[in-house]
Amino acid sequence: MGTRPVTEFLPDGPPLTVDPLLAAIADQALTADQTRTVLPNVINDIKTSPTMRLSASTSIGGEQASVLQIGRELEAVAARCTSTAWVLWNHLAVFHLFVGTLGPPHAPLLKEIVTNNEWVCFPAGAGSGVTGVIDGDSVVLNGRGSFSSGGRYADWAGVVFAVCDADGNRVEPLDIRFTIVPLNDPNVRIDPTWDGSSVRASATDDIHYEHVRVPLDRCADWFGANRAETLRTVPVVDHRYREDWVGLSDVWLGWMGVGLVRAALTDAAEEITSRKAILGKAMVSRPTVQVNLGRASSLVAAAAATMETACREIDERIAAEIVPTDADYLRQVGLATSALDQLRDAMTELLSTQGGNGLRESGHFERRWRDFQAMPLHINAHRDRAHHQIGRFVLGEELEPF
Q1: Per residue in 120-146, pLDDT tens?
Q2: Interatomic CA distance for residues 373 and 189, integer angstroms
Q3: For 272-309, what is each residue's pLDDT tens digit?
Q4: Among 32, 211, 304, 312, which residue has the least CB neighbours within 10 Å?
């Protein structure tokens, strides 16, 4: 059997670290969506694979994969199961953040996490609020972190907290710090609150901290909204950690979108070759079907090319140990946002072409359609946030905090 036409038009990438896991990831995709849980054997296979270590530098036991390679790995996973890709994406991106924030003093702990194949998450979305009271050489944490994608599969959670006095009042001047907490701590509770229609098995839950005691020397100053600028000057474990995690997460999210929409296009093209339209006419012969799939294919190709350009630019900067600028960061965010816009248009073309049959839960498209909706809505790549910042930059205005 020859190569699928879609694959000829949108060629597969090079061999991947995750290749041996892809069949198992695909096999459980429907079950994961229905049960809202990625199967334990798949999580275990990922944890024991070099895939877990892709974003970590070799100095802390990682694979030090290129930004482009990580994007292509996530593209392949998203084509099989978007929920699995979503939690792996979160782990790889937020671990990059953890390394940059904790820095060289915590390199031994970071290396331990990498070599033990441990998973991390970062519940710090809207509605989060954690306080910390310093007690000798420890800090006692209380509060809640939201949007902990991958939390139920993870071993560690990143926590941003405000230092308070014994009465619970925030100290002045404001003191915001960052630490990581082992999720097997008996005073940590994961509340399975994620009921979203997209990435149903992403475990994007709430995590509660109830008198959780953390060593004070496991804490670091939180750069917060100023993180991208700060990382350009503070000591780092490796030069790659001067790149801000938000920009990296955006280009990797763009690749995930490419994988998902490419898979949806492949399925649609194959199904349409055997389907009949009204009055028994072959769908494959209808001009509008041909036009719509042609446009969808072109949009996916453009999005993939955009993401490859963005990733190569970052990889070249890392290799040359060039410190990124605001323009560099905003450009990669803008490229990712534009790619997601193209992919959203491609999904609309595919739904329009398939009609009501595209919404049947018995097929794959309906699940992929739901899953894709989470991508352009993620705050890191949301077009409103991205375009507002880019607009301010090109007009010479001061950038907003985030």
Answers
A1: 999 999 899 999 999 999 999 999 999
A2: 29
A3: 887 777 667 777 788 888 999 999 999 999 999 999 99
A4: 211
Closest CA to 334 of 401, 395, 396, 250: 250
Instruction: Tell how far CA 215 is from the center of its chain.
Output: 29
What torsion, rounded to 10 degrees, do the Cα atoms 104, 108, 111, 115 define?
180
Is the bond preceding 376 in cis, omega lying within 30 degrees of 0?
no
For domain 239-394, give the CATH number.
1.20.140.10
More confident residue, 354 or 319: 319
Percent of the chain exceeding pLDDT 70 equals: 98
Polymer length in residues for the chain: 402
Which of 276, 337, 265 has its CA nearest to residue 79? 265
227 neighbors 122 (Cβ within 8 angstroms): no
Domain ranges of the chain: 5-115, 120-224, 239-394
CB-based contacts of 269, cutoff 8 Å, min separation 6: 4, 5, 6, 293
Nearest residue to 60 (alpha-carbon basis) of 98, 17, 16, 18: 98
**Mean pLDDT calculated for residue range 96-105:** 96
| Across 29-44, average pLDDT | 97
Among 295, 358, 347, CA closest to 9: 295
Q: What's the whole-model pTM score?
A: 0.95
Indicate if the alpha-carbon torsion angle 280, 282, 287, 290 is positive or negative: positive
Cα separation values, 176 from 173, 306, 372, Å: 10, 37, 34
Q: Domain 120-224 classified CATH 2.30.110.20? A: no
* Helices first, then strands: H and E counts in the chain: 13, 8
Place of tokens 């059997």: 1
CATH of domain 5-115: 1.10.540.10
- Please give the structure tokens belonging to residue 372: 């894709």
SS3 state at 12: coil
